[in-house]
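Two proteins, back to back. First:
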Amino acid sequence: MKINWKNKIYKGKNQDFLNYKSSITNKISQKASLKIERNKDFPNTIFNDEKLFFKTSRSGSLFLREVLIYANDQPIIYARTVFKKNLRQLTGLVKKLNENPLANIVFKKKTKRSEFIFSHMSPNYKLSKRLNEKQIAIKKFVGARQSNFLCKGERILLTEIFFKDINRFI
């Protein structure tokens, strides 16, 4: 089942972070010890809505970076970054990030961020099932958002899934 995205936030408590346009990782790093773990265990699976966004049917033409972000050793965000693989300069920059946030690229360059779209993350979504395999239960999700960045004329798609513990650090 594909993710159902909406232009409005699903009602819930303490969800101001869902509309926060600047770097959430920079904001959280001021209050907590931040750790970013690249997910190398997941197969490099590009979802149909991501292929549709880039107008391609070939997953091999897209680059995917998946990370879990922790604050004081508590998982707070799962993030997926997808862009066209043929963008050598961007691919090189993202690969060099290693355990650093994407904010080190998109908020330090001249970029333009789109408006957000939101989801409540149903347990039936493929992404929810993959996160459950990683022992991150759906009951810990508090919201999801997606946006894209325009950087030097190229688009970067960012999907972020937020967990309950984020409210302790925002």
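And the second protein:
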Amino acid sequence: MYKVFHFIKRKKHLSHEQFKEHFERSHAAMALKFCGHLFSEYRRNYVNIVWTGGDSRQKDSGYGQREWEWDLISEWILPDEDALQEVYRIMQSRGFDELFHADEDRFIDRTATVTVPCDVRDTGTVFDPKGTVFDTPTGEPSWE
């Protein structure tokens, strides 16, 4: 599995809700129309408030709700890196690149975009101690 996260920020003239509405109605629709066959999953995680600013274990540390820099964490889940390269090829091909760029220029602050490609390792949801710090005769953790 291969995953790419895109951290995307709205242009200042838009509210978070206007950004979300436009992304779903236009940008996500284009991505699915032209590249959806390459995605295993395509998730849009809209974020407006985060918890940060201190140590959550310590009272009065400053930890609390804050507005966050980005409005969206977009996830492209793909079978492999080759699928990602094909998405990029399609999006950069003549005609499509102009369409995507024109739409982005309407609502995305491109100077704040962060793209994070990941080689995903999924161990599932069932704990297996083999090869972990718990792989000891007693089952107690050992970091040695």
